[in-house]
Amino acid sequence: MAARTLRIGLIPGDGIGKEVIPAGRRILEALPASLGLKFEFINLRAGFETFEQTGAALPDETVAILKSDCDGALFGAVSSPSTAVKGYSSPIVALRKKLDLYANVRPVKSVGGAANPIDMVIVRENTEDLYVKEERTYDTPEGKVAEAIKRISQRASSRIATMAGEIALRRQKIRAAGAPSIHKGPLVTITHKSNVLSQTDGLFRSTARDALAASRFSSVAVEEQIVDSMVYKLFRQPEAYDVIVAPNLYGDILSDGAAALVGSLGLVPSANVGEGFAIGEPCHGSAPDIMGQDIANPIATLRSAALMLEFLNEEEAAALIYAAVDANLEEGKLLSPDLGGKAKTSEVIEDILRRL
Ligand code: ATP
Ligand code: MG
Fold first, then answer.
1. ipTM of this predicted complex?
2. How far apart are CA 158 and CA 176, in angstroms?
3. Which InterPro entries does this one have (predicted)?
4. CB of 23 shorter than 6 A to ligand 1
């Protein structure tokens, strides 16, 4: 196999981002040479500390290097000051816009033997819906009224549903290769509220259905569910879901809810994905309460590195990382404090690297 070199931007950011991103780098470096994969790492700056030092939370240089020199990136976390600071806004939100990372992908998986096993991926549209932030407030004789635009387009709905279909197929391929699974076949659940919002959510629903009717998805079962009843079923019967595709706001809420089901933010990865580019990002924040103590759980970042590799078409490498993490969790001897263990970040990393 010809060697492939992937250039990966590393953006630790603030707080525990600085402790977990090096773990992401180490697991990539530890992948077996037989995969024919090489990595070059480029250290990049963003976050609140960068803002304090340079006046920009997301320096132009960081964006330029990601665009021109990187195949993918790992992003740690950035702290958000509790009161608004003039000129500061979230660099990851800006990055999603500047690189057109239109999908936020969040796999949620329980540790083996859970009473209600969970193994799902939430695919959230990332560019429109209520997040276009077109709000206005006006006065009426009865008092103020505020309103916001909810924008849903065929283009964005179609590409996000297509991505969900592709993820469902990829998961099926991994299962067919022998990975244990609670699912029998690929399934995509479209979520919406078109019983009330017949035009906006109606368009999302019909466009997603059309996209998933493409012949390459003929093996994928497609169902749909109203978002409120999905929340109910998600908490009672999470094993019923394989891939969920949702407009921006519902996706945001569902993915945090689903993350709560598996016990710790420290376990849940995500990826921000666009055409040919992916940024892996742990779901947790900068966690200032535990920084500098070597107790942050690195698993969300390790899984985010694997997820990034999946979107760079390196599924085999990704599968090795997932398996090493799962083996650590299933044995349960070297767990970080958020999972009830006593292990340091460094000990968890060493254990997982050994299994790789
Ligand atoms: P931010 O403002 O950056 O979002 P936060 O204070 O909201 O920071 P989060 O990172 O969102 O912090 O975390 C919420 C809680 O979960 C914190 O108590 C934190 O200690 C815990 N937590 C988050 N990530 C991890 C992790 N990787 N390992 C262990 N505990 C974590
Ligand atoms: Mg937070």
1. 0.94
2. 27
3. IsoCit/isopropylmalate_DH_CS, IsoPropMal-DH-like_dom
4. no
Ligand 2 midpoint to CA 79 (Å): 8
pTM above 0.80, yes or no: yes
3-state helix, strand, coil in the chain (%, to 5): 45, 20, 35
Other CB atoms within 10 Å distance of the CB of residue 288: 12
Pocket test for ligand 1, best of 290, 304, 348 (most atoms within 8 A of CB): 290
Cα 35 to its chain centre, rounded Å, is 24
Q: Which of 284, 345, 348 is the pocket-test mutation for ligand 1 (most atoms within 8 Å of CB)?
A: 284
Helices then strands (H, E): number in the chain?
11, 12
Neighbouring CB atoms inside 10 A of 198's CB total 11
Ligand 1 nearest atom to the CA of residue 289, by list position: 20
Residues in the chain: 356
Judged by its nearest atom, the ligand closest to the C-alpha of residue 304 is: 1
Return d(Cα 96, Cα 231) in angstroms, integer.
27
Atom of ligand 1 nearest to the CA of 282: 27
Q: Which atom of ligand 1 is nearest to the CA of 290?
A: 20
pLDDT digits (tens, 9 = 90+) for 217-237: 999 999 999 999 999 999 999
Q: What is the DSSP letter of 127?
A: S
Judge whether residue 131 has pLDDT over 60: yes
Query: Quick check: 49 and 91 in contact, CB under 8 A?
Result: no
